[in-house]
Amino acid sequence: MERRLTATDIVRMRRSLAMSPQLPADQVQWLLDEAERLVADHRRLEEITRQLTGPWQDIRAALNELYRLAGE
Q1: What digits encode the pLDDT tens for the residues 5-64?
Q2: Percentages of the chain per state (helix, strand, coil), in multiples of 5
Q3: Is residue 64 within a helix (H) or strand (E), and if so which, with residue range?
């Protein structure tokens, strides 16, 4: 399995902003912000899917959260 981008990777990139000298700093900043959001979303989805194996109350709460996230 390929290695995924982590929050730590994003912090390192954000500190250096050395991903590509051709990109202006504001575009690199936008890219890092989006990557950070995706990593956070992925982590949240993992938490929610773990709840799908619990009691019905947890499953219902997880499904409601998934529905809310899908609407964003």
Answers
A1: 788 888 887 777 765 667 677 777 888 888 888 888 888 888 888 888 888 888 898 899
A2: 75, 0, 25
A3: helix 56-71
Residue 34 tokens read as 């989006």
Whether the predicted model's global pTM rises above the 0.85 cut: no
The CA distance from 62 to 47, in Å, is: 9
What are the CA-CA distances from residue 1 to residues 4, 26, 28 (Å)? 9, 32, 27
Contact 29, 17 (CB under 8 A): yes
